[in-house]
Structure formats: C-alpha cells, structure tokens
Batch of 3 targets.
Target 1
Amino acid sequence: MSELKVSNDTSAFEVHAVLDERGKLTPESVGRALSMMDAHGLVVLTNLLSDEEADLGLSLMRQTIEDPDRERSSFASETDNRYLRRDFCSLPANPAVTGFAAQLCQRLERVLSEYCGRSRPLLEVATFTSYLGSSHQYVHRDPSGVISLFAAVEDVSDQQGGTVFVPGTHMYGGAGNNLGGQANELMELFRTQCNCRIFLHNLKKLWRMQGDGQAPLAPGEFLDRVFSTKWDQHQPNLLRFVSGKNSQFSLRTLGPRTLWKLYRHRVALRDLFQLVQIAPRKGTVILYRSDLLHAGPDNRSPHPRRFFGMSIARDIIETKYWHDGYSPHPTLTADPLTFGDLLDFTVAPEPARVLNVRTA
Ligand SMILES: [Fe+2]
C-alpha cells in the first residue's frame, strides 16, 4: 500500500475576505464563500482576522492551555491527549471568549445564516493543539448537521500539518445519486483506502519513535497506542483493529468484497477524490460542513500547531449526539448560547477587550 498522497495547493478553495465598513464580509465575498461551501463543503477565508485580532485569540487560548484545571475535550484521540501529543480543551464561556466567538459570527453572519438559524445552539468553543509525535487522525465525518470553524491565530506550516479535507464529499440531499448512483460507495472506498495508509503511517511512525530523541515515547505509550483495550478511534491500535472495535477503521471494513472493489475502482478513486491539506496563514478562517470527510494530521514539526475552533448546530440536536462529537465547557452547558445570542452580543472595543483578557 503506497503512502498517503496529499496536495498542499489550496488555491481552489480560498476566498480573500473583504470586509465592509461595519466589519462584515462584503456581499461579493459572501457569494464566493457560499459557492465554495456548496461545491466543496468548505471555504478557506484568508485575512479574515487582523494580526491584532489573531493575537487576542491566541492569548485567550493560552490562558486555557496553561491552566492545569482546563477542561479536556472528551473526543478525538484521548490517548494522544493523555500523552500530551494533543491538547484539545474547551474554552470557558466568559465575556472575553464569547466576545471573540461573537466577533467571528458577526463578521461571517451572511455566510453562517445560510445554514444556521438564530435559535441554533453554539455546540462548543475550543482550542486544538497538536504536538510532535501525535497520530494522524483517520479520515472521518463529524456528527452531521453542524457548521464548524477553525481560526488560525498564528501561521501554520505544512510540516505542522494543518487540517486535511476531501473536498466535495459533503452529504447534501441527492449527493448519493452522483457518479451514476455510486457516490456514497466510492466516497466510502476512498475513505477506507486513505485509512489503510494512515494506519500504516501511524504504525511506522510509532516504531521509529522508539529510538527517537526528538519525540521519545513515554513509558507505556507504545503499548497504549498499539495494544490498549481503551476506547480511542484514531490510534494504530492493532488489538482494536483486529477485533473490529474501532468504528473508524478496522478489519471489518476490509472484507474480501471491499478489497476487490478497492482494486476494481482504483482508477476512479485516484481521479475523483483528492486529499488537500490546509495549513493556513495567521488570520485565516476555515469553514466546513461537519459531514465533509476530513482528518487532523500529525504534527511533524517541533512547533505546536494551535487552532481556535467553534461549532454551531444547523438543526435541533439530541444532547447525547451533541456530546458524542463536541465538548462544550461546563460554563456553556450551564448557560447555553445560541447563534442569535452571538449575533446580538456587544463586542467591546479593542482596548476594553484586551483589558478583559488581562483581568479575566
Ligand atoms: Fe473531526
């Protein structure tokens, strides 16, 4: 099985964000962004945040990352979280964090309103940090019916990893009828093919890390990532792969029929789908439909990769389903916010917001 092929050319998915006098995306930028979302399931809005705004977001994230009592997210790779390969935590719903989230929503109102009504809940506001030695997530879909946003508060290099998407694999009405009615099957085959390669990539990398001075394995880490019985959907766990207990990728997904189809459709899979890694510049915001195939790659550099993230529901959502995929901070659970609340939130002028951050 060959290596994972990933393109770093994101130009086809980018819209340069132009703001009007009220700080909102201009109708022209909105139109282009919505076309991208329809065609590809994502849009990369460059220069949406100024350097000062991105710095403010980073300072808010640092307050949480440096807090020993931070609220760790309960999804993605918990083993990576345990060994500090990743640090995914929710941000508290305090005025400074809510103000930052509100500013993003207000700036993107004309885009987000196409998907989310005012009464729809803010599912989480979070910070996602990935360190050297993390695993490459399997290609997956998040719980459907959600719009998610990643904001780059500092430059992210290709080596740091960004986020990997498979443009055009979002699940809208009738999408399955495409490609002669084979769209769903071909997308799933492509996901399986990618995940085979990610499984081998992660295993090889862990093997190499055993004698590695740069990202040495912690005591017990190799066993926990390869042979643990604990739940974790994004490790190259052989035990859970063989026993079929990993819903993202296991031997169950690789029956003889699937292997035959992977062979039979190998040319179509190569030509129809493409993995694209988006390693954004500071101030860039990525919007994507949660049902788009994507993965958080491993960080292959010694510099931590940090993103600000938030998700808003597009429909009513069952609490259990919500908490399976998103980790709201207890302060957000206690005092929920909707998309409308964020649109109505009075965002303080810059000096007061900085003051807020410093005194929070
Ligand atoms: Fe995800």
Target 2
Amino acid sequence: MPACQEKSPTKITKITAAGRGGAHTYCLFPRPKVYSAQVQSSLPRTAVGVNEYFYALSLREHGAVRCVAAGSSIHLPLAPLTAVLPVGITRVALPPKPLRRGRAGGRVGASRWEVDVHTATPPLLIHKVKYHQQYEAPAAVVATVRRLWQPTFDAMATPLSAICAQYATLEDDVMTPDLIPRGSIIYVNPAYAPEDAKNGAAGIEIHLSKLVETDVRARIALLPNLSHTGWYRRLVGLCHEIHFISGTLVFSNPYTDLEPPRKGYLWQCRSYVLCVWRPSAPPAQPTLNWLDLDAAPTERMHLRLCAKCGRVRFLPRWVAKPESAKLRQGAFVCARLLDAKYGSCEVPEYVLSAVE
Ligand SMILES: [Zn+2]
C-alpha cells in the first residue's frame, strides 16, 4: 500500500500513519540534486524542509529513522564512513544512484521514512500531527502579534509552528486544566476541526471557549471573521479589541505543501481578525480597529546540529536572526534554542506521527 497518495502537484492529500518496518512513517522526498551529503541548514518552509529534518535525523539515528525507496531495497542513508557523529555527517556516502527520477523537491509515490522511536537511545519523542490541521499563521501575522502583544504561550502549536518559546502540542492538549503557566499571555490560532481528520470549524468554539472562559489571562486569537456564527457572537463579543486584518492571508502547511502556496483561492481570501481579551471584565462593546500587518520576510526553516551533543534541532520560526553568531551552524548548542521543550542536550529529538 502506498504511503502517500497524490491528488495535485502541490498537495499531499493522504498519508497513511503505519508502514512496514516502523510504527510511524512520513513521506520521503528526493533531495534536490544541488544538495550535498551535508545537512542543509536553511530550507523552504514546506514539506521539503520537514523532509530534510528526517534526513538529518536519519544520519544520527540509523536504526530509528531510515528511508525506504519504493520498489527497491535501498535503505538510506548509507553507513557513515566514520563512526563519529556528527562529524561523520559530512562524510556520509552519497546514494549510489538516485532513488527515482522526479521533480526537484517533488515527491516520490511510496517512498517513505520509517521510524521506530524505540531503536534510538534514548527513544525519540513523538509529536502527533493532524496534517490537515497544520495550517500556520502567516509570517506577517506572527511578526505583528509578537510586536504588539509579546505573547508568551502558544496554546495550539507544534515545535515547527509555535510563535512563543512555550507552547502546547496535541500531546499537551489545550483542553487540559492548569496547562498554561500563570501570568502567560496566550496566543492561539485554533484548530478549526473538532476532531481528527474532520472538516468544518466547530473546533474553534471548543478551544476558544476553554481559553476565554476558563483561562483568565490576556489572550490573542487569530480567527476567521465569521460574524454570522453563534460562537463568534458569544466569544468574540466578550473581547476587548477586534483588529480587522487588512488584505488577504495565505496559510501555508509545511507538512503537505510542496511549494509556497499562492493567493487566489476563495478560502484563502476570507476575512480574518485578531481578537484580544484582557484579564479585566468584558467591555460593553469591543473596540474595533483596522490592522495593517508588518512586512515580514520570507520564512525559512533553519536546522542546526548541536556542537555539544550532535542532536538535530529546528530553530523556532519566530527567531529574528537565525544567522546570528550564537545560532550559526558550528557554534549552536541546544541551550540556545529558546524552545522550552527542546532547549537542552538532555532531550532527544522528536519525530512526527500522522493522526488519521
Ligand atoms: Zn545539544
């Protein structure tokens, strides 16, 4: 059974969670020919970038993360020429032949990463990912929210999408009581669907109700401007400020996009608002504002290898200067990651596991 099925040239539409040889699988993309055997430190914010993370991880964890090419028994990466990692990463033998011909950055049908987290020592951590719920706030929104409100806790995120050093993943579960540290300024771009692999926007009400009615702190939410709905009247009606975002937003999904998405589709041209709830009592009416978003540079994924432990880390997407001296490849160590979950050499890397 193929691990991935393709519907359009730019989207993966179905990914099976289980595969032969491992409990978790992930689509494998051929690395662009211009890449060397070295790990690429800066990548497009797409599935190709996520793929490079798995590649880097496979260099460290040969038994736990490996790739299986469709229709062949080739297992990559090949053994490093030295037993020393991560130094050996630069000396890994290149594959003897291309996996299969394909578009640069494109995908290959049934080729996949197979992951067995328990083969690694210590075992790799697992983050469940609902591929169809992983649309990320655009970079301009992230920049604007961070400048205006300095949020400290992203309530529904992954290590890839979080806009704060502290964040809650699917495993943490936003609905958990006392999840959010005291004094936090919460940001949320809520999952729209109420359950795994479902469509619709009923999940917004569930998650927002918990944050607005239970967690009494300053909150910022990025929401579709669905003023005709009951939840909008009930929950947005309680906020202190509604900021109508000028222009259109395009949400990307680095787990499924093969290229940066373009504007133009109706669902991408929906009106969006940023709502702010203050800790004080709700006002009689929210204040209404127009909001021009900050200009934001094209976001990229930045991979780093820890100079101390050799682990592979993604820099948080909100880091303003990934090229700074402290974060450059070679000088980077885990403690500089500014990610509350992974900013330590003691914490193993994570892998992604698709929820069906
Ligand atoms: Zn480290």
Target 3
Amino acid sequence: MRSLLRRCTKCGAYTLSKEKCPRCGGPVKVPHPPKYSPEDKYQRYRILQKLSTGALPVREETKERILKDLLGGP
Ligand SMILES: [Zn+2]
C-alpha cells in the first residue's frame, strides 16, 4: 500500500492526498526509500547474529544461502 502514501516536497508531511499537501498546499510525490538505509544494515547484523547463535531455525543449506546473500559472496 506504499503507493497510496504521498509526501509533500515542501514541508515533508505524509498524506494520502494525490494532488497537494493538506498542510501547506505544496506538491506531493511518492516517497521512495533509499536503496541502502541504515535500518537495512542493522537488520543484516541482526540476522547474522541470529544465524550464528542458532536463534534462527533454518537448515544448513538455507543458512549458507542467507549468509552468502548478506555478505555478498560470489
Ligand atoms: Zn506540505
């Protein structure tokens, strides 16, 4: 449902309006999160930690695939 949400380019307010910001009347556009956000980085570490402590109940091959994905292996 991300496409329903718009963000004012003027004041930065989030709105469901497609035309203009209800707060300041400025133009709105669909907000796109940055490709690499800090949250993604932390999530990666959380997953790595869970994998290494065995908190994530996955099979060995799944674990290897996740590790390869996360660490950007060949
Ligand atoms: Zn605004």
